[in-house]
From TrEMBL:
All residue ranges annotated as the SH3 domain in the record: 582-643
Name assigned to this protein: Thyroid hormone receptor interactor 10a
Protein location: Cell membrane; Cytoplasm, Cell cortex; Cytoplasm, Cytoskeleton; Lysosome
Encoding gene, per UniProt annotation: trip10a
Entry's Gene Ontology cellular component terms: cell cortex; cytoskeleton; lysosome; plasma membrane
Source species of the chain: Scophthalmus maximus
Keywords in alphabetical order: Cell membrane, Coiled coil, Cytoplasm, Cytoskeleton, Endocytosis, Lipid-binding, Lysosome, Membrane, SH3 domain
């Protein structure tokens, strides 16, 4: 297509040159039979010019092809700059995405609870949990924005930048070829111009020499020698002019040939290559435009899931359940206080009154007037007492009856009796209320908490200890099995190497049992009042047997053997269950195993077995054959695939 630039340019040049020089384009030079003046013929008009000096080479235009090449060079350069501009735009877009994702992550991290705060009571509320879910979804959303930026950088920026460098190098090569062809044509034109000027100069000299010889021949005063000399000079000048004419004609043919090659072959080929380069550049840029959208479309489903997760977090909020959680967390377990007794201070003044009865109050307003300055609010501002002076929560003072004593007996001194009753009933109760807003030192038995909360914390602590104890017992059993296998198969390992681990496990079991007994005792004390919440955990002896506590919280009197000896119990009874354990996966034997020791099972390479129990860290896996045979095999001898 771009070769039309050259063809149209050639047509325009031919038309313009024909107006000024009809002999332009292709010339044929011939010599006459006398060897005299040569003639130049135009192939179309067959016009003959006796004087070839009429040919003006100024009609050959060299600016238009160069102009067309400059236009194409400028166009391709503009296209490459557009690619660079788009790459820069995408890079800045990725920076925006990365900054946005970074700000979202920082925002999520800022409002996310710290690890130390996750145990706070408020974290159990559904509104708090939903807020944490929103923060997590926001963090995931930020990850998707980072993925968009990463994909744009990899698939668009890096790819287009690499392709752009290849296009620049290819374009540079084509332009160098065009420049080289242009320089070659210009060099040939300079040679043509020089030969033309020489031919013109020599022709004029020959013409003057011929005129001088003719003039000398007609001069009667000239000698024969002068005439002969003038003719020889004219003949020599004519011969030189003829040689210059032939050289000029050869240079003209050479230039016309190169010009035709330049306009009809070289430049169209180069322009076609540049056209193909530019079209490939446009096509690649269009793909980059599409990738700009597809990159974000690719993560839209995941972003939609993040937004759905935020919506789900909002629907999971349950205000009623939150209220119940707050009630359960803060329920104190205290009994409600009874009515405040009437305090009659008038008995100390009126000594003549009867000792068997009190003065009748004037009315309810009198009672309020006497107690107006006595604030018994739960969180009233009172002077703080040291923890040692306060009674423990486990044994709070019993409240007085609802209506107080119907007929108190004052004895000899009614005033002393009233003060004594006040000290016994009202003041201890107020002290117990004051402790609710105090922050005493946290104790191991949780006695600083209200009764209900103390029971819950003790029960939670017992569950944690039991889980840890169960873990230690499982490890002890595994070590016992491993030691038994080592004793029966010394080639598999040294039993003495397990002594330190067995000893440490035994110490951990004894320590956890002590803590278990201690917390069980405290739980029994905390459950003595109100609703009894007995915790009956299972304890374990060193043989792996279960000891169930008696209802009163004390352990059974059955003595256990020494822990260092009981750990190595036989594990044959593990296979005597009436009901077969459901397989949790399959395994394929990679090596042969004889199964000579007790509790193991033989297997052949390639045999498929059902996995009954995973490896607990001792290097053995429990398996079962199709015929029901069960036993342990080395975990390193098989390839295990567990059910999902």
């Amino acid at each position: 297509m771009w070769r039309a630039f050259v063809e149209s340019d050639m047509q325009q040049q031919t038309l313009m040159c024909s107006l000024y020089c009809p002999a332009f384009t292709v010339f044929s030079l011939t010599s006459d039979s006398t060897g005299g003046t040569s003639q130049l013929f135009h192939p179309r008009s067959q016009d003959v010019f006796q004087n070839p000096m009429c040919l003006s080479l100024t009609c050959v235009s060299r600016a238009s092809p160069q102009d067309q090449c400059d236009i194409i060079e400028k166009h391709t350069q503009s296209g490459l700059e557009l690619v660079e501009k788009y790459v820069k735009f995408v890079k800045e877009r990725t920076e925006v995405e990365q900054n946005y994702a970074k700000q979202l992550r920082n925002l999520s991290k800022k409002y996310n609870l710290k690890r130390s705060s996750k145990d706070e009571p408020e974290c159990r509320l559904s509104s708090y949990q939903s807020f944490l879910d929103i923060l997590n979804e926001t963090n995931d959303y930020a990850g998707q924005r980072e993925l968009i930026a990463e994909n744009m950088m990899m698939n668009i920026c890096i790819d287009l930048t690499k392709y752009l460098q290849e296009l620049k190098q290819e374009r540079k090569t084509y332009l160098m070829e065009a420049k080289k062809a242009q320089q070659s044509l210009e060099s040939t034109f300079k040679q043509l111009d020089n030969s033309k000027k020489r031919f013109e100069r020599e022709w004029r000299e020959a013409e003057r020499a011929a005129q001088y010889a003719e003039k000398t021949d007609q001069d009667i005063n000239a000698t024969k020698a002068d005439v002969e000399k003038a003719k020889q000079q004219a003949h020599m000048r004519a011969h030189v002019a003829e040689e210059c004419k032939n050289d000029y004609a050869a240079q003209l043919q050479k230039y016309n040939k190169e010009q035709s090659q330049f306009y009809f072959n070289d430049m169209p080929l180069i322009f076609n290559k540049l056209q193909d380069l530019d079209e490939r550049r446009v096509r690649k840029l269009a793909q980059g435009y599409i990738l700009f959208s597809d990159t974000e479309k690719h993560v839209m489903p995941i972003i939609g899931k993040c937004l759905e997760g935020i919506t789900k977090a909002g629907t999971n909020v349950n205000e009623k359940n939150d209220s119940m959680v707050v009630i359960e967390q803060n329920k104190s377990g205290f009994e409600r206080p009874g009515d405040v007794e009437f305090e009659d201070y008038s008995q100390g003044i009126n000594r003549t009154s009867s000792d068997s009865s009190l003065g009748t109050p004037k009315g309810p307003m009198d009672l309020l007037g006497k107690n107006r300055n006595k604030n018994f609010w739960l969180f009233s501002k009172k002077s703080k007492l040291s923890p040692s002076t306060l009674p423990p929560f486990s044994t709070p003072p019993a409240p007085s009856p609802a209506n107080g004593p119907s007929s108190p007996k004052f004895g000899r001194d009614p005033l002393s009796y009233c003060l004594k009753e006040i000290n016994k009933t009202v003041k201890p109760r107020i002290s117990s209320f004051r402790t609710l807003r105090r922050s005493p030192t946290v104790t191991e038995d949780f006695s600083h908490l209200p009764p209900e909360q103390r029971r819950k914390r003790l029960q939670q602590k017992l569950e944690e200890i039991c889980k840890e104890l169960q873990k230690e017992v499982d490890q002890s059993e595994a070590l016992g099995k491993m030691k038994d296998v080592y004793e029966k198969n010394p080639q598999m390992g040294d039993p003495a190497s397990l002594a330190s681990q067995i000893s440490q496990t035994s110490q951990n079991i004894e320590r956890l049992r002590g803590e278990l007994n201690k917390y069980e005792t405290w739980l029994a004390e905390a459950g003595g009042r109100g609703e009894t919440m007995r915790y009956k955990p299972q304890t374990f002896n060193n043989n792996g047997a279960h000891d169930v506590q008696s209802p009163d919280g004390a352990q059974s009197d059955e003595s256990t053997p020494d822990s260092s000896q009981a750990i190595y119990a036989e594990f044959d009874d593990d296979f005597e269950d009436d009901e077969l354990t459901a397989p949790i996966g399959k395994c394929t034997a990679m090596y042969n195993f004889p199964g000579a020791s007790e509790g193991t099972i033989a297997m052949q390479e390639g045999e498929v077995l059902a996995v009954i129990e995973e490896d607990k860290g001792d290097g053995w896996t429990r398996v079962r054959r199709n015929n029901g045979d069960e036993g342990y095999i080395p975990s390193s001898y098989v390839s295990i695939s567990l059910n999902k």
